[in-house]
Amino acid sequence: MQAKVIAHSNIALAKYWGKLDSERNLTAVPSLSLTLDALRTTTHVQFDESLASDELVLDGRPSAGRPRERVTRLLDRVRELAGMQTRARVTTANDFPTAAGLASSASGFAALALAATRAAGLPLDLGGVSALARASSASAARSLFGGFAALRAGAEQAERVAPGEHFPLVMLVALTATGPKDVGSTDGMQHTSRTSPYYPAWVEHAPRLFEQAHGAVLERDLPRLGEAMEQSTLMMHASMLAAAPGLLYWVPASLRVIHEVRALRARGTAAYFTMDAGPHVKVLTAPADAERVERALLDCDGVERVVRCQAGPDAREVQG
Ligand code: PMV
């Protein structure tokens, strides 16, 4: 009745922001991501008859409130599928800052969904586990798959697009500031869809950017991928900026990195940025240019650290 799992975070190259169905947590636009080797969550789940309620230990500290409620909601679905009522002890640790726009929910819920189904003895394939993870966090649906993964608009589960070896790339994560983000993605997207006059335009144009990014991955075309990626993130953030009140995740260092990426490009280096619901900037580049781009990012005032990532593998069960 126990299992230990490692799942990797992912960064969307073509973003999703907004729900088609909030109840079922289905996304309004398609998204495409790269799973990252260096950002990982390790989660252990043990069902235990002696527990009166689910327990959560997050990064070494017992955790209650909303994080535990979200864990219990996923475990309830697993218990329902397995026809049991036993409560579980969940121990989970990230090797990167939690809730700072680094998609800890993606690797976190992917790891929890896989560990809980394995511990309960449910024979779900990765697609089935992806659907379970998606109900908790849509971006988590993509983290079950290594390499490139897609989650179509309104889809129950993510799908594999290509393994990482198909198109070797480096994602440099420039950490600009640490600390929990102000507005979580769930609240942020609800606020945007309710109040931003630009939200309908985002929903209309995002599928085209997804198609461009998808085609560029299959054709191994970095400039075409990078162009779609930057437009996707800027359009998503434009929809947030136009909300009332406007939602602004950027800090001065984020802008410095963005300008540096464009300066690198003007000098002939293929590097492209993307940002999520937090101040960090992620920069996509070719392996041969990674060293140079990393140095340039570290020179930007306000960048505290750069985490160099390549494509990561599928979420998987480990011993121990
Ligand atoms: O599903 P969530 O709550 O993790 O939201 C993810 C939203 C973005 O990271 C901004 C975009 C994305 O597609 O991952």
Give a written overview of the molecule:
With 320 residues, the chain is of the alpha+beta class. It contains 9 helices and 14 strands. It has helices at residues 65-82, 104-119, 126-136, 138-142, 185-195, 199-218, 222-241, 252-266, 290-298, and strands at 2-14, 19-21, 26-27, 31-47, 55-58, 61-62, 88-94, 148-151, 159-162, 170-175, 271-274, 281-285, 305-309, 316-318. The strands form 3 sheets. Strands 1, 4, 5, 6, 7, 8, 9 and 14 form an 8-stranded mixed sheet that branches. Strands 11-12-10-13 form a 4-stranded antiparallel sheet. The longest helix has 20 residues, at 199-218. The radius of gyration is 19 Å and the shape is globular. (3R)-3-hydroxy-3-methyl-5-(phosphonooxy)pentanoic acid binds next to helix 2, helix 4 and helix 5.
Brief overview, please?
The protein is α+β, with helices and mostly antiparallel strands and 320 residues long. 39% of the residues lie in helices and 25% in strands. It binds (3R)-3-hydroxy-3-methyl-5-(phosphonooxy)pentanoic acid.
Structural class from helices and strands? Answer: alpha+beta
As residue ranges, the low-confidence spans are none
Secondary-structure element pattern, one letter each? EEEEEEHEHHHEEEHHHHEEHEE
| Largest sheet report | 8 strands, mixed
Number of strands: 14
Quaternary state, please?
A: single chain
Total helix count?
9
The first-to-last residue Cα distance is 13 Å
Shape: globular
User: Roughly what fraction of the amino acids lie in strands?
Assistant: 15-25%
In this entry the ligands are:
(3R)-3-hydroxy-3-methyl-5-(phosphonooxy)pentanoic acid
Radius of gyration: 19 Å
Share of helical residues: 25-40%
The chain-level mean pLDDT equals 95
